[in-house]
Amino acid sequence: MSRRETLDSWKDIAAYLRREVRTCQLWEKELGLPVHRLNDSPKARVFAYHDEIDRWIRERLVECEADRRPAGRKLLKRVLFAAAVLALMASGFFIWRDIVRPASGGSSGRPTIAVLDFENLSKDASLDFWTAGLPEVLITELSKSRFLNMVTRDQIEALFARLKVPKDRTLAGGDLDRLAAEGGLTQFVTGSFLRAGEVIVVTLSLRDARTGQVIQRHHVECRDQDEILTKAADLALQVKQNLNLSGAQLSVDAEMYRKLEPATSSAAAFKYFLEGRRLHGLMEYPASISYMEKAVEIDPQFSTAYRSMASAYRNLGLMGPAVKYGRKALDLSERLPELERMLIEANYGIWTEDQARAVGVLERILKLYPDNLMARTNLSILVLSELDRVIELREFVYRHHRTPLTANNLAHAFMMKGLYPKAEAVCLEYLQDVGDSSGVRDRLIAALVCGGKLEAALAEAEKNALSHPGNEYIQTEWGDVKLFMGDLDGAAEVYRRNPILRSYIGRSNLIVLDLVRGRFEDAVAVARRNLAEAGQDKRTVSVAYDDLSRALEKSGRYEEAAEAWEEHLRLLAGWRASDDEDTPPDLPSSRRRGLFIKGRLAARQGLSEDAVAAARELEALAERSVDQADRRFAEYLRGLIAFQDRDPRKAAGLFGRARARLRSEAKWEDSIDHALFYDGLARALFESGDVREAAKEYENITRLTYGRLSHGDICAKAFYMLGRIAERRRDRVRALGNYGKFLELWADADPGLPEIEDARTRLAALSR
Question: Which of 49, 339, 547, 637 has the CB geometry, 3.0–4.6 Å to 527, for a possible disulfide?
């Protein structure tokens, strides 16, 4: 920029460069900062020209490797070290990389690169975002290559901590060698940026991981912050050209990404996106969605922001907007590179429950990008029939990227296999070594509950509830733990603070307690009151009919229950026909649940043809599912039909196959019908005369925790049945104990229930 405006003192020069006066004087001495004097005396008044300073910034500071003076190299070394230290101290802005990049430790022979945080040399606060933002963009760009492994920031920070490499001295010699060897690193990327007049200059250095020597240095000039995003592709290409990639490999990358665009060219949208992804990793989904909404408002073509919104909505259980924004992301993905496009396609397959499509895409991704974290996470959602593989996939992701979400996912995998101590250990390790998280603490409580450590679970639940007084879900969890411990009055006290809190299965806390206590008429009354108070809200009305159907089924009023369920389905169909984006979509899982309840109610009414038709449809759905556990619904229904037809041996075989497909309790959503499956098998075994095996199943029911939230009545009646079995086996002590426990739970139950009258009669006889 040619202008002869002057800076008339060291103070003015320092202000222009945003540095201390002493730093500018050092730069004059060691790096040739263009400063003039009125005469040759060192003490003479100094001045400088704007245009010369700007030119020096671009040509001298940015390309200071051309300066061979030792002092200059020493200063450069300090600048690079400062950038490295900043990388190790920075936090946040980490989830963008999950979208497109593999982690390190992949196929041998691939360059494995760590990108450290960049330094803001100009000290312009408006550019501070790019300290972490630039590495994210570069990692994104470099990860598009099939031939590189990129290292996560979590890995690097954990590596420094594990090796106890001090952060207050220059990385050199043995430290670099140890970091390279332990992390499998071949190169570091460091860099800086500064505002030089009207442009932003970004400098990047590719360095050998073992020696720290600069392999090559590159820089680009950007007219504004938006152009940083587009120029990052140029820097990534220059990095690849300085690695040991063959001409054929470079040609493959070049062909794949020719004529493609970045996900967004708006720096402002990208900033919102990164913050939204950070919040997503913290499991703060509503806040994450709000940032994504800001991102797509700025850039309506930002496909990966729509993808993230869809993922957050799915994690909140709101499948209507999840599918809507997933479709939007897919429609906009054609202009994206291969990996991003495939990930969006796989995500959409998950959200629409097109499982075979999703698995196929994810398997292709992992063949090309073996260590991609997002592909591994998504595949682990789909291969639940292979729990060892699920654990392996999630362990890899957690090892490379430790967030509340990845810790929660890994602990959940251990719980599904019944490895509760391991799930507990993951949660405790995260909470102690990384930081507090209500999401991880929530999973810890579940692991403690399912592992039988109810006192510890109660302490954690109470602590969590007191820390989040406005969070209805966390408050209710506290009540749940009290229920599991048998403190029904304490649970009721907590529940009444949120009396109509519902989940997607349509339960309310009051109905849960009524079923545990055998108060079926009260449960029906609560459901009817909820329906009366639902008003015109479609979701609330639909859920209220769901509640009512369940309460009526539990009270044995199967015809009325079927009518309420049909009304629920009718309302749901009408809602889906509207333009309301919050409508739950017609997915295989919702059809499966609808058929399971419809068939169950038909079988209990003796409507065998309707029940068989529902079983056939359930079998057809299971054939299209990659999760073998989905076959249990049709098997249970076939077993129930056989039981109603008075063939308990056949029923036991079918119930047994269904029950064998259950995974271990991992929280209430994973345990929703455990009691139902155990009870079906136990009743069939009892009626067929195999009381020993029946007792085992009833014992399993009494040990359920989250399973009580849907079928508290079954859990209570299990004690009654254990009393009958003990009595048949002439075990008077066990019979007395089990009858006593049952009558204690149902002390305030509806009058006239046959189980209560029978238990009292038997208890009196045994007590003589």
Answer: 547
C-alpha span between 173 and 171 (Å, rounded): 7
Contact 276, 93 (CB under 8 A): no
Q: Are 653 and 620 in contact (CB under 8 A)?
A: no
Supply 487's token pair: 């403190």
Cβ proximity of 664 and 450 under 8 Å:
yes
In which element (H, E) is residue 187 found? strand 187-196
CB 506, CB 525: distance < 8 Å? no
SS3 486: coil
What token pair was written down for 115?
Answer: 């990108």
Residue whose C-alpha is closest to residue 565's, from 542, 538, 591: 542
C-alpha of 97 from chain center: 15
Q: How far apart are CA 604 and CA 552, in angstroms?
A: 13
Which of these ranges, 28-42, 389-403, 495-509, has the smallest mean pLDDT? 495-509
- The SS3 assignment for 573 reads helix
Q: What are phi and psi of 258, to 5 degrees?
A: -65, 135
How far, in Å, CA of 517 to CA of 110, rounded? 62
Tokens (6 digits) for 707 = 């399973």
- Give the residues across from 253 on adjacent strands: none
Q: Which of helix, strand or coil describes residue 566?
A: helix
**Cα 398 to Cα 163: distance, rounded to the nearest angstrom:** 19
Token duo for residue 258? 């020719």
On the question of pLDDT at 102 being above 60, the answer is: no
- Considering only 32-46, 81-95, 161-175, 185-199, which range has the smallest mean pLDDT? 81-95
3-state class (DSSP) for residue 152 = coil
Residue 38 has a pLDDT of 67
- Cβ neighbours of residue 617 closer than 8 Å, sequence gap 6 or more: 591, 595
* C-beta separation of 87 from 160 below 8 A: no
Question: Read out DSSP for 467-525?
Answer: H-TT-HHHHHHHHHHHHHTT-HHHHHHHHTTSTT-B-TT--BHHHHHHHHTT-HHHHHH
**Counting beta carbons within 10 angstroms of the beta carbon of residue 292, is it exposed (0 to 12), middle (13 to 18) or buried (19 or more)?**
buried
Distance CA 675, CA 709 (A): 10
User: How far is CA 500 from each of CA 493, 507, 533, 552, rounded to the nearest angstrom?
Assistant: 13, 9, 11, 18
State the Cα–Cα distance between residues 494 and 513, nearest whole angstrom.
12
Round to whole Å and give the CA distance between 503 and 567: 19
Q: Locate 21 and state its tokens.
A: 């006066």
Taking the C-alpha atoms of residue 686 and residue 346, their distance in angstroms, rounded to an integer, is 46
Residues shown for the chain: 768
The single-letter code of the amino acid at 230 is: T
Whether residue 713 contacts residue 720, with contact meaning beta carbons closer than 8 Å, is answered with: no
pTM of structure? 0.78
Place of tokens 């048949």: 728
> What pLDDT does 81 receive?
35
**Among residues 281, 360, 338, which one has the least CA distance to residue 100?**
338
**Rounded Cα–Cα distance for residues 25 and 35 (Å):** 9
- Summarised one tens digit per residue, pLDDT across range 627-657 is 999 999 999 999 999 999 999 999 999 999 9
Spatial separation of the C-alpha atoms in residues 19 and 33, rounded to whole Å? 13
SS3 (DSSP) at 199: strand
pLDDT of res. 736: 96
Q: Note the pLDDT tens digit of each residue in 255-299.
A: 555 545 678 889 999 999 989 988 988 889 999 999 999 999 999
Q: What does the block give as tokens for 200?
A: 């932003």
CA 232 to chain CA mean position, Å: 28
- Rounded Cα distance, 302 and 309, in Å: 11
